[in-house]
Amino acid sequence: MLILGIESSCDETAASVARNHTEILSNVVSSQVEEHKQYGGVVPEIASRRHCENVLPVVQKALDDAGVTLAELDGIAVTAYPGLIGALLVGVNFAKGLALTAGKPLVPTHHLAGHIAANYIAHPELKPPYLCLVVSGGHSHLVEVLTYTKFRILGRTRDDAAGECFDKCARAMGYPYPGGIHLDKASQSGNPKAFSLPKPKIAENAYDFSFSGLKTAVVNLLHNAQQKGETICREDLAASVQATISEVLTEHTIRAAVEHGYSTIAIAGGVSANSGVRESLQKACDKRNFTLYMPPLSLCGDNGAMIACAGSYAFDAGIRADSSLNASATMEL
Ligand code: KG4
Ligand code: ZN
């Protein structure tokens, strides 16, 4: 089975061809990060315009690299939600046109189902059910993966997503966008116990997350130090932020696993590239004899392979769309 996956939900135009769900024949990503960097974040209109320019050559290269023709495909999967609406619309409309022209089924795919599926590519032995922590720039979800295409959300963020918190703290500390990776690098030489930062608990749902208090604490700390003419060791603050986020994510994930009887855990999304998060979860899982699956760093961020893989499972489940398919900025998993 050959599925083409197209992704354009944020600032990466990406496409990939997957054979039999997890065998990735090509994986082409055109990133706009350098252009958005100068504005300190993704500018939605610029993102849409770049997708418009890039989607055809990226899809063409994905087919060429895979040595596959349009006629040989079994289906065309596309990220239809959630994401930046103008960005999503480019991929969705392109996929609709392609599916119509080639006479192939169109498979609408959820971006977070894609992130989760990145684990199947690296670890085909991973099979539902299991618990997955999905942490990206826009989401922090604790998800029960019931089947390849059915999910139940146990917890979610009440405010900032984990990636957003990393990026906002990094920005306040003077690192360029996207700051998560810079904060991760700086943490390597910092003291994670240098600063005590808030770890809020949500009374109504112990699995929910809240990261805006941590971000505010970091901004206030930097502001107060500046007012007093004091200098703060950026590496120490970075390491403290990373340790706090890692602890919160780990505590919630392990608690949910214990309380719902899961001994298999996965992590997915851009923040699953974070070294502190990976180490902290690995340690906690080792302690309890839980098995932890993590995507390789190359598949943590947005890419087409994860959509081709998730789209393959959606195809099997009979999920289809016709030419009335629309994109949506928000959508439950
Ligand atoms: O999944 P993703 O590529 O895009 C969304 O769907 O949002 O996630 C991007 C997020 C950004 O906030 C980025 O800073 C964060 O993932 N990220 C990291 C690291 N690498 C990417 N955050 C912390 N440490 C990293 N090493
Ligand atoms: Zn993503």
From TrEMBL:
Subcellular location: Cytoplasm
GO cellular component: cytoplasm
Keywords: Acyltransferase, Cytoplasm, Hydrolase, Iron, Metal-binding, Protease, Transferase, tRNA processing
Top-level class of the enzyme under EC nomenclature: transferase
Cofactor(s) listed: Fe(2+)
Gcp-like domain span: 23-308
Keyword Cytoplasm (UniProt): yes
Binding positions for substrate per the UniProt entry: V134, V135, S136, G137, G138, D167, G180, D184, N274
GO molecular function: iron ion binding; peptidase activity; tRNA N(6)-L-threonylcarbamoyladenine synthase activity
E.C. no: 2.3.1.234
Cofactor binding, note field: Binds 1 Fe(2+) ion per subunit.
Chemical reaction(s) catalysed: L-threonylcarbamoyladenylate + adenosine(37) in tRNA = N(6)-L-threonylcarbamoyladenosine(37) in tRNA + AMP + H(+)
Cell division found in the keyword field: no
GO biological processes: proteolysis; tRNA threonylcarbamoyladenosine modification
Annotated function: Required for the formation of a threonylcarbamoyl group on adenosine at position 37 (t(6)A37) in tRNAs that read codons beginning with adenine. Is involved in the transfer of the threonylcarbamoyl moiety of threonylcarbamoyl-AMP (TC-AMP) to the N6 group of A37, together with TsaE and TsaB. TsaD likely plays a direct catalytic role in this reaction.
Family label: Belongs to the KAE1 / TsaD family.
PANTHER family: TRNA N6-ADENOSINE THREONYLCARBAMOYLTRANSFERASE, TRNA N6-ADENOSINE THREONYLCARBAMOYLTRANSFERASE, MITOCHONDRIAL
Name listed for the protein in its UniProt record: tRNA N6-adenosine threonylcarbamoyltransferase
GN (gene name): tsaD
